[in-house]
Structure formats: structure tokens, C-alpha cells
Amino acid sequence: MTTQTTPLFSGIVPPVVTPRTAEGGLDLDGLAAVVDHLIEGGVNGLFPLGSSGETPYLTDAERVEVLRVVKDTTAGRVPLLVGANDQTTARVIDEARRVEAVGVDAIVVTSPYYVIGNGTELRTHFRSIASAVDVPVIAYDIPVRTHVKLPVNLVAELAAEGTLAGVKDSSGDDVGFRQLRLLTAGLEGFSLFTGHEVACDGAMLAGADGIVPGLGNVDPAGYRRLFDAANEGRWEDARAEQDRLVRLFRIVDVPNGRVSGGAAGLGAFKTALVELGVIKHNRMSSPMGSLNAEESAAIRGILVQEGLLSA
Prior knowledge:
The protein is an alpha/beta fold. It has helices at residues 28-40, 60-74, 89-102, 119-132, 143-146, 152-160, 174-184, 200-205, 220-231, 235-248, 261-275, 293-305, and strands spanning 11-12, 81-83, 106-109, 137-141, 166-169, 191-194, 210-211. The chain has a seven-stranded parallel beta sheet with strand order 1-7-6-5-4-3-2. Strand 3 (106-109), helix 4 (119-132) and strand 4 (137-141) form a beta-alpha-beta unit. Helix 3 packs parallel to helix 4 (119-132).
């Protein structure tokens, strides 16, 4: 029998988008509005400086500015799990210390990217970062960006020894996710998150503690309803909500190859937020292209179809 444990973090923790002005600067008022929109939607935490925040495109100064606005606007209402990622361990530690100095609840860290490493180096990477900061470290498994899939047994080892307090799994490896849940099921405080947008009900059935959905920027309340239904064992309700969110996720297909995949997905989230009246502009970080008026109209149509806007 599996011992009942309580995760340190759980629920809906969206990766916060970073709005820009029409001229391309940071839209800090828009960012504050996004934070309020998410918290009012019932989220359980926020994940600024993640992939959906276009973090690789932000300067060091912009990253600090974004985090300060998110922290000030959140005002302690929900935990902050904050990304600290770079090419090497030393650079990640520098970033993590800057983030920690602002005041956060956890650091979210990928494997190093650009460099070519192995399991031994990954183990050293996460141990070094955990030793350098005084807040919990959550591993971010996103091989589409790092080109490295975190080995399940290595993650479980680091979790068991206390190096990792959790994982955000955006690998798309459902088998590995299930195996990791089994290996960490008895660890008090360990938090297992799925980064899925469209298979969250399945991840919850497999034992996920929470969901980190980019689409949650658009419909945080929908994801909270899904999480609550699954957490309460109302699986038909969870599936119905997930089906609606799958239909809503079609907004990312609207550009149909006109812009890059990253610009299409994040641009769709930003465009939806414009249509919902949360932010003013859907400008992407250079050199990514922004969605145009025709694409915005198509996204608005999907928002209407799925009940987020009136016709």
C-alpha cells in the first residue's frame, strides 16, 4: 500500500506570459493585469520566467523587472515557482541567486542547454544548484527545448535524497511520467506536475499533483475546474472540461505555419488575452513574428465558441 503524502506545491500553476508594448518594450501594467486575471481565475500558484514567458528572449534586467512586478502584484496570494535557466550550471546558479533575492517559493530548473552532457553531469548540475540556494528546486523536463530527456531513475534518485522537491514534466512521455509517479509516490512533499494542456485529466488519473498549462493564461478558471473535478474523483466532469480545453487549444493552430511554432503558440495566448481585454497588445519578443488581424479574428471566434466571449 502506498503511503499517503502531501505535496509541497499542487494545483494549477500557469507559466505566466510576458506582455510587450506595441513598440516592443515590457508592458508592466499588462503583466500585472495578467497576474490578477490568473489569481482571480482560481490558480494555486504562478510560474513566471518559464517558456511561456519568452524568458530566453529577455535580458537579465528584464527578467528581474518581470519578476518584481509579478511578486508585487501577487502580494503573497499564491506561491511563486520561478524559472532560473541558462546554458551551464554556473550561469544557472547566478540566475537562481538573482531570482531568490527577489523572494520566491521555489526555483524551476532545466538541464543545461547548448552544452553536451551525460547522466553524471546532470546529477552534479542539480545537486550544485540545490546547494547554492535556500529554496526548493523543481526540475523542468522539457526536451523539446533542451534536447535532453531527464532520466526517470535519475530524477527519482535526486528526489529521494532531497535535491529535487518536484518535477514539471513537459516531455510528453506518458510512460515515463507514470513510472516517475510510482517511484516518488512515498516521498513527503514531492510535487509532480504535468506541463500538458490537452491530456491533464489523464495525468491527474496517473497521480499528478498539479498542472502547469500555458493555455491556463487564457482560461485559468477552466483548468481549476478540471483540477478540482479530478481531485474529487468526478472523472466525467474532468473529461468534459478537458474536452472543452482541447477545443480551445485550437487557437495555437490558427497561424498555420505563417510564424514559428513558438510564436504561434505564445502568440495565440497573447492574442486571446487581448481579445479578452486583459492586455492591449499581442507583440512578441524579437525576432518572433506577431499574429495579424485576420488571425486575431479567428482566435476571437474560437473564444466565442468555447464560451469565453459573447458573440
